[in-house]
């Protein structure tokens, strides 16, 4: 796989304290944060809401991992870009099938986690509770809900630059960042 940025993604284990936080997971209504490293025009820190009752927790931190938009974007049929999804975080669009089906498709393709962006591209403030669809076969990878405006802006930047993925760091501990307020997307209400 060729990297358009000239770097390879690295898996970096977090410190023991971070590991404990990630292993225990987040509570209801808590947000997880990730930072886009490249492309730089969307180099911000984004928030995402973990699924309420399915999906796993982040047990490692990823300092550089790809965020790959799935093809098709809703992830409701067989993913056509499996070769670049394996081992990466996958970006999907809400709609067409259940959140569980989307996360299961990404897990079956070898993805490490899934970000499901709201289909309403003007949604810049309302996180949705992702819940199970009643099936017994639940995915074990982390599943997160992303604001529609954020998903739209990420996809638009990648399309405009003809890039197959963004490079991200996930999860990010924003409580240790003094400059956090300056690193938020300008289009998102915080």
From TrEMBL:
Its main location: secreted. The chain crosses the membrane at residues 6-28. One of its GO terms (cellular component) is extracellular region. Residues 67-152 form the PA domain. Keywords: Glycoprotein, Membrane, Secreted, Signal, Transmembrane, Transmembrane helix. The keyword Secreted applies. It is found in: Secreted. InterPro entries: PA_dom_sf, PA_domain. Signal peptide: none annotated. It holds the Pfam family PA. Plays a role in the modulation of physical activity and adiposity. This is Protease-associated domain-containing protein 1. It comes from Paramormyrops kingsleyae.
